[in-house]
Amino acid sequence: MTSRGSSPTGIRFENIEKRYGGLAALRRIRFEIEPGECVALAGRNGSGKTTLLRIAAGLVRPSSGELTFPSALGTAAGAAPVASKTEAVRAKATAGFVAHAIMVYDELTAEENLLLFARLQQTPNAANRVEKLLHEVGLFDRRDSLVRTFSRGMRQRVAIARALLHEPSILLLDEPSTGLDPQGVAWLAATLRQLRDAGCTILMSLHGESEISMLATRAIRLDAGLIVADTRSGAELRSILTFADA
Amino acid sequence: MSLFSSTSALLGKELRTEFRSRELLTTTVVFILMVIVLFSFTFDPTYNESRRFGPGLLWLAFLFAASLMLQPCFLREQNNDTLSALRLSVSDPFAIFLAKLVANTLFLLFTEVLMLPVFAVLYNVPVLRVLPQLLLVFFLGSLGVSIAGTALSAISAQARMRELLLPLLLLPLLTPVLVSSTQVTIGLLDASPYIEWKGLGFLVAFDVVFLTLLWLLGEYLLEE
Amino acid sequence: MKKQVLAAIVVFFLVGAAAYGAFFVAPTERTMGPIQRIFYLHVSSAWTGLTAFFICFVANVLYVIRRQPQWDWLSVSAAEVGLVFTSVVLVSGPIWAHPVWGIWWTWDWRLTSTLILWLLYVCFLVLRTLVEEPERRALFSALFGIFAFLDVPLVFGSIRWWRTQHPQPVIMGGPGSGMDPTMWWVTFFSWFAMLALMTLLMRARYVMEAARGELEMVRHEAEAV
User: Which of A44, A164, C107, C206 has the smallest C-beta neighbourhood within 10 Å, fewest atoms?
Assistant: First the structure.
């Protein structure tokens, strides 16, 4: 797994708010993820995890607040509000996003899907990159099968390959282990560990403790759109992640 | 340049998925065929009568078929949240619309060309001598239908009662297309065919206005 | 509150004066007789309806740019009030047509275009009922409103071209052809009175919509707690 090691990038949320009608999905979200950190987002369903990730990916426009991507060198890369086009484009160029849905076409084969998105992202050397990724996620032998015929674990592998196409320096994952069998989870944990060790910044929402949550170097807990806990210390981190999600 | 390459990549995907299942094309062809046959019961389809009513019913059939065919255009992208993947990948969201509207125009044209001989035979209208002109009207009309329809299907995909909503929003908006293409077709099927330049002008104007609007407003149609 | 009552009284007298003008000041039309007096209601409502839809369009554009709910409230108020005036046109047209030509409806290009215009804005309101989430509803209806309004010139143009291609009953050679100047004055005064009425209705509707929007917001917040 390769990641764009040259410029590790962090994410800075500055007073992000998101309201759907009157309903506040996120309130006063203010924190910064250092380049290379692996952050786990915890919280019950509807606490705002998905919205936060989709804002970070540049898919959802926050009602107010700013999102910036400071690089490791300490210079904030553009202080423009995320609503502005340049920052949204920057988010697209930086972050790889694995959503809850797999974000690839059922009617296309694994290879066709990856080639399509590689061409859309103008990945240089698209064919080579796709072939390499197919090997890395272990789908090379099934590259000509329609995604529709894949098992849940294989679908998640395609989804992750798609997110890694442009060698992102930030990876955003929304409950990536949902529906995976134990081998799938083990594979995912190994993959993410490799990426983290290569300097990739990771922000992922999780519930419960698993092999994947062991990777986290920091945990943040959301409740009703507010950050209620944020820690880097080991013991506290575990307790935040295992906190009963009633 | 990136708009062109993204659009062609996406167009390839649209065509490939459709030709793999062929579900849109087959259902649309059967639908138009059915309307054409059923319409023949509403008047006596002799040559004279057909020339007066034929073009209108043909275009009505095309419009209704299109308003059904365009239904899944954005709905399909919701299955696996692929619309988000597209939004993250393309640098210009207009490419998403452009690819879809070109694909829809091609699908519509294909079904129309397939149905033309059936129409000509059942309604006793000679079409061969004005075929190129007819194809031009079909193209300009289908383009207008596809532009407006693709834009509105992005809206209807996110609303309730979406199956009813798309025709409801689309059909009144397409009045200029219906009026102009019907009049031009009537002119072409006349005993001594003539070209209604003004009607063609309205079709071009509609296409240009709505393509510009889509270019300006497309990204808002995809907002979450 | 006092201001609004005062405004309502002023509008009442303006509309009354316009009616007086239509019935007693304007001369009787030579061929059509007294029934032509409905013209003043018909034409001034048509112009006012178009004005309201134009306001709706401006609000739609501003909403897409600024994303403030106020523009959404204005757009729905303008669309509804515009529909009321357009309905007056569609009803008064046949009332006028029947004694003059002996038929209720004629596919005259102005009447037909107005009918399509009316349909477009009915669809605008239907769309609003089918999108749940307020911001999405506001954005989508604003975008559809922009499409619809810019479609109007094409609708009018194409229907006019189509209907004037074929011979049809002549409905007075369009306003301006040999109309008495007094008739013009009465027409413009009626339009002015209708515009005042439109402003009054739109304001009332806007206040209602604003209250509804705020109530929705408060209810959501209460549910969230």
Answer: C107
